[in-house]
Amino acid sequence: MVSPENRQEFLRHLDVGKIQATIVINDIQRAIDDQLKPDISRASQSYLSYSWSEYHNLEAIYNWLDELEENHPLVAKTVVMGKSVENRDIKGFILNHRPERPNPLYGVLEGTLHAREWISAATVTWIIKEFLTSNNTEIRALAENFEWHIFPVVNPDGYAYTFSTHRMWRKNRSPDNVKTCPEGVDDDMSHGVDLNRNFGFEWMTIGASSDSCNNQYAGPEAFSEPESRAISNYVLALNEKGNIIFYIAFHSYTQLIIIPYSHVVSSDDALLSGNYPDMYEVAIRGADALEKRYGTHYRVGLSANVLYPMSGASFDWVKSAVDVPMTYLIELRDLGEYGFLLPPGQIVPTALETVDALVEMGKSASRLGYYELQYSGANTVFFSISMMLFGVLFALLK
Ligand SMILES: [Zn+2]
């Protein structure tokens, strides 16, 4: 990214170094401004106070979660997993369509660990809406077979900061490691830890930085941050209560479904995560289903193969600590045309194709024996009652 006043000098450097370059985004500020304009053609895509024609700030998301609880008291409740550095709630949503069942299986969705990845929060809130209200048999089945624990924004300070001050902020807002950064790097850059490098599995072994001025700063030690501690404590407590079958962390961008572990650089070590072949099959089928709707292509694999090797990521820690069978990190749209500044008009398409993937992943995991997918619910009950009434009516007519 180059500011207009440095344009000529930058081009001269490229020329001298004989470096070929292409411009991906011509005017970043315009892309930032455009991202805040609602896409009116999608104004109908809303539920209660919330819509998917635009991106929403933290307050709007949290207010909407409260509204859901008020409107669906039998199946929905909000939950706070902990507090952020700046004392904000890390608020989520528990959805259980069959509260009477004794031992539910759990699914956990983690959104927006990285602050600037707005499409993550938008997609995760859409999934909540679909799981809560959809009449589609297959979405309904996936929603009903688990007790879902869904957190649209697990980095609330960073997310708020992307709305108030710095659109491209990635980390949390920890002040503990603030220092003077090298020339060309704003000192504010040291005001935060990369939460997806701060978890206590293979911490700081690869693809992470010990320099707080770096965007991949892993923190002074594993779990130094309240946000990563809150997530890990929540997962451990849930695992004590029963079986977590799915854990999916939503990021952007690059269109990937990433399988643990991310520090693994040799394919011989892919099997370190135990059921890598099954996770791979489920992910491939999910990616195929996703592609059917709009032709959006997602790649599947280890982080080292499809993105870069890294350590201290939340989903890798989840896999290692409690061995959740289906653990993934999904990098949503796009491939870099807009990057983190994905236009509001792409929220609904991204969300729709992502749900397609989740439905197929749910079916595939069941087919591989990880749980028994049951279709029952409203449609079957409705059908039985209709047949009964028809029977009564027929008898009366006779
Ligand atoms: Zn990310």
CATH H-tier superfamily? Zn peptidases
Helix segment tally: 12
Bound molecules: zinc ion
**Sheet of most strands:** 8 strands, mixed
Oligomer designation: single chain
The name of the CATH topology is: Aminopeptidase
The end-to-end span amounts to: 80 Å
CATH architecture: 3-Layer(aba) Sandwich
Structural class: alpha/beta
Q: What is the string of helix and strand elements?
A: HHEEHEEEHHEHHEEHEHHEHH
Q: What percent of residues are in strands?
A: 5-15%
The counted number of beta strands is 10
Low-pLDDT ranges? none
How many domains? The number is: 1
Classified by CATH, the class is Alpha Beta
Q: How are the strands of the biggest sheet laid out side by side?
A: 3-4-6-5-7-10-8-9
Q: Give the fraction of residues assigned to helices.
A: 25-40%
Name the overall outline: globular
Give the C-alpha Rg.
22 Å
Mean pLDDT across all amino acids: 94
InterPro entries: CARBOXYPEPT_ZN_2, M14A_act_pep, Peptidase_M14
Subcellular location: Secreted
Function: Involved in the digestion of the blood meal.
Cofactor: Zn(2+)
